[in-house]
Amino acid sequence: MIALLQRVAEARVEVAGSTIGSIGRGLLVFVCAEPQDTEAIADKLVDKVLKLRVFADAAGKMNLDLTAVGGGLLVVSQFTLAADTSSGTRPGFSRAAGPELGRRLYERVLATASARHPVVASGEFGADMRVHLVNDGPVTIPLAVRG
């Protein structure tokens, strides 16, 4: 699975003009499933996201994870993370999982995250979303998790 994490002061996602998920301080995580991904890989991604130490401690060093700072987690599906731009000027998306697998693994990420962390919000799989965020730092980290 591919993810792009952004440490945020706040973030929200809207569908059709209505906010469907929002957090204050925390992590906005864009998630993309690939054809070879499994539920175990989705669980591994959640573990990595929750344990990633990207928040400052008292000394200002990135040493604290999401749980330590009591932050929220906003998870948004984004198949375009698997874009292939190796030829031409129009990206291809054959590296992304198909809609059925993509939805199943996105829902697995949400269920696992919700079981392990108290504040989890989400976008809507397959919807045309507007994502608003205030990147804190800025801190933006790409993450790939393989079996």
Overall description:
α1 packs across α3. β4 and β5 form a beta hairpin. The protein has 147 residues and is α/β, with parallel strands linked by helices. 24% of the residues lie in helices and 39% in strands. The protein has one domain: D-tyrosyl-tRNA(Tyr) deacylase (D-tyrosyl-trna(Tyr) Deacylase, Chain: A). The termini are close together. 35% of the residues are buried.
Topology:
Blueprint: E1 2-15, E2 18-23, E3 26-32, H1 39-51, E4 55-56, E5 62-64, H2 66-69, E6 72-77, H3 99-116, E7 120-122, E8 129-144
Parallel strand pairs: 3-6, 6-7
Antiparallel strand pairs: 1-2, 1-3, 1-8, 4-5
Give helix % range.
10-25%
Strand content: 35-45%
Would you tell me the structural class of the helices and strands?
Answer: alpha/beta
Q: Sheet with the most strands?
A: 6 strands, mixed
Mean pLDDT: 97
Distance between the termini: 9 Å
CATH architecture: 3-Layer(bba) Sandwich
Uncertain stretches: none
Shape label: globular
Number of helices: 3
Question: Which fold name fills CATH's third level, the topology?
Answer: D-tyrosyl-trna(Tyr) Deacylase, Chain: A
CATH H level, superfamily name: D-tyrosyl-tRNA(Tyr) deacylase
Number of separate structural domains: 1
Q: Number of DSSP strands? A: 8
CATH class reads Alpha Beta
Backbone CA Rg: 15 Å
Q: Helix and strand succession?
A: EEEHEEHEHEE
